[in-house]
Amino acid sequence: MKISKTPVLTVIVLLLIPVAAFIYLRSPQYRAQYELALAEKGDPAGEYRTCLNYAIGNGVKQDIAEAARWALKAEAQGHHCREKLGDGKIYDELVEEMARQDKLAGRKPVKGR
Fold this sequence. Notes:
The chain is mainly α. It has 6 helices and no strands. The longest helix is centred in the N-terminal third of the chain and has 21 residues, at about 5-25.
C-alpha cells in the first residue's frame, strides 16, 4: 500500500503553523507593534513602553527623538516616566536630544514638561 505525500505534508504544515505563530508573537517586532498600537490609543503604559522601544531600538529602529515624544505623552497622562528612567536623568537626556534633533530638522519644538 502506497501512502500519498499530500496528507502527510498537510499534517506537517498544520502542525508547524502554531509553532510559527508562537515564535512571531514572542518577537520584539510584534511586541513593539502591539505596544505602539496601545500608545496610539492613548494608553500611558503603552506610551512608556513605546518610549523604551525607540530609546533602545527594541523591535523598531532606534530613534531618540521619537522616544522622547512618547515619554512626554506618557508623562502628560500621569505616567511616572521621569522616575522610571534613571531618576529623571535619562528622561531629561531624551527630551534634550529631541529638542536638538527638532532644531536641526527645522521643526517647531514640542512643548515638554
